[in-house]
Amino acid sequence: SERAARAGAVNTLAFNGAEIFGDNTDGAGLVRDITHNLGCLLAGKRILLLGAGGASRGVIAPLLAEKPASLLIANRSADKAVALAGEFADIAPVKGGSFTDIAGKCFDLVINATSASLSGASLPLPPGIFAPGSLAYDMMYGKGETPFARQAAEQGAAQRADGLGMLVEQAAEAFFVWRSVRPETAPVLAELRARLAG
Fold this sequence. Notes:
- The protein is an alpha/beta fold.
- The chain has helices at 2-7, 26-37, 54-65, 78-86, 116-119, 147-154, 164-179, 186-197, and strands spanning 12-16, 19-23, 46-50, 70-74, 95-97, 107-112, 130-138, 159-161.
- It is built from eight helices and eight strands.
- The termini are far apart.
């Protein structure tokens, strides 16, 4: 699919006779979780995407399709962020830079696509990047708040979310690819949240 080609990865296979169709549902899952489950419309928003690896690559085109005011990719290696931004410049203007380049700017949505939360590390986020009413979204999830969510709360993010909803929504999108039916995700997400809490 076009979105798998853009993402540079396939996470869903559909079989039709001898033909195999490869798709990527990560970006669709992220966008649906943010817009549908969290009620945060992305049109006109200033988005900061942290990290320039595969997790970021898979969600850039779907985020741009929502017509945000801006999308900036920040990474420890600025060159990698700039190169990644350039790959999507034909869709809409995207900027890339280092964590120091975001100093003095503020964002309505900050998405952590780095692996920092897996190791419990904090990110070198300058103060003031969270705009009033902002959402801090960590693609990672687990029992309790992620390190990024705690850091975002300390720096003034109004709302925080982890990536469990993205996991459920990308799975629902894969089911839609296979069956042309979109499952109801709210009960699944509620059950998973309850199991993580228990």
